[in-house]
Write a structure and sequence with these properties.
Elements (H helix, E strand, L loop, with lengths): L2 H12 L1 H12 L2 E2 H8 L3 H13 L3 E6 L2 E6 L1 H18 L5 H18 L10 E8 L3 H9 L1 H4 L8 E8 L6 E8 L11 E11 L3 E8 L9 E10 L44 E10 L6 H4 L2 H18 L16
Antiparallel strand pairs: 1-3, 2-3, 4-10, 5-6, 6-7, 7-8, 8-9, 9-10
Helix pairs in contact: 3-4
Length: 331
């Protein structure tokens, strides 16, 4: 069935009176007069409803003597049911967007309860690790060149709409993002963050401060973000270096995100000198009470961003130069 057929069926079934007739006809074929009695409606109204259902292909009719008897058609209903089942399966697939939405919702409720005073999240830390299918110098470009950074530096359901990244100490950072399907920018901005680059050691180490902005323009918190890069060890990827994170509650530390994507650990491993171990660490300071919505999304959102980075590098691993002429600010 196509969308037009599904829409026609749904429109026909949406009326409560017609739905009542469908339920009666599911029991057995019945004439118009009996259907009107059982439905508690006038016969002319019942006839119009039945004609509507017949045009939609849900029922069929035949004249028997002076009576017109209607019967339910099972095939269109099965087709509609199959279409609805496909929608349900897509919505509830494991690790799909809906699952991420509900996972974020659980974290959101927890963080909002905890956000009872300024500084409530100070000291919280998040650690991420990825083994990437590229050399450190190629990864470095993806971390510091705005035109390349824009391709991955948002969660799955968002897109970068403005980006400035000046990869030098004191360099400016501006990141604005919108819904991924907001092509014309007519929807509200999903978020905006501003920051400053602090340390730059090309191919090895990057550190910056980044502050998501609240609707009134004030900072939700300051994230102190560091990246460490080094060639992968011969023989495979190393485990995540979780260091000594400083969670808000020592009894409930933030788990390290140790996902490893790309072909590095598949049946066709790459040589170690073409892979990079990337470690990222976030430390939160200056958290405002209203920052809970942002804090709740760090683990999921930045984890998805790194997954996109890994996928991009895996797809371009056969290009040894990682050639891309675009550099500078992206918007």
């Amino acid at each position: 069935m196509d969308d037009a057929s599904d829409s026609l069926l749904l429109a026909a079934l949406a009326d409560p009176a017609r739905w009542r007739l469908v339920r009666l006809l599911a029991e057995r074929p019945r004439p118009v007069g009996v259907l009107a009695q059982l439905a508690g409606a006038r016969q002319p109204q019942t006839t119009k409803h039945l004609q509507h259902l017949e045009r939609a292909g849900i029922v069929t009719s035949q004249r028997t003597g002076q009576r017109r008897v209607y019967a339910l058609q099972a095939a269109p209903l099965r087709g509609l049911a199959a279409a609805l089942n496909r929608l349900a399966d897509a919505a509830e697939r494991e690790d799909g967007p809906a699952a991420t939405y509900h996972r974020y919702g659980l974290g959101l409720r927890t963080e909002r309860l905890a956000a009872d005073e300024p500084g409530w999240a100070d000291g919280r830390s998040f650690t991420f690790h990825r083994t990437l299918a590229a050399r450190p110098e190629q990864v470095w470009r993806r971390l510091t060149e705005a035109s390349l950074l824009a391709h991955w530096w948002t969660p799955d359901d968002l897109r970068v709409s403005e980006l400035v990244f000046e990869a030098r100490p004191g360099g400016r950072i501006v990141q604005e993002y919108r819904d991924a399907d907001d092509a014309d920018g007519s929807d509200l901005v999903a978020g905006r963050a501003e920051g400053v680059v602090e340390e730059v050691r090309p191919g090895e180490h990057l550190a910056y401060r980044l502050s998501p902005l609240l609707p009134d323009g004030t900072a939700a918190f300051t994230a102190h973000v560091t990246f460490g890069l080094k060639p992968a060890d011969t023989g495979g990827s190393k485990p995540a270096d979780t260091g000594s994170p400083e969670p808000a509650d020592a009894e409930d530390p933030q788990p390290a995100d140790t996902g490893t994507l790309g072909p590095a650990d598949t049946e066709d491993p790459q040589p170690a000198d073409t892979r990079t171990e990337l470690d990222a660490h976030w430390r939160i300071t200056d958290s405002a009470v209203d920052s809970a919505d942002f804090i709740a999304g760090i683990e999921i959102g930045f984890g998805q961003s790194l997954d996109k980075l890994a996928a991009i590098l895996a797809a371009t691993q056969n290009d040894p130069t990682d050639n891309n002429p675009e550099k500078g600010s992206a918007s």
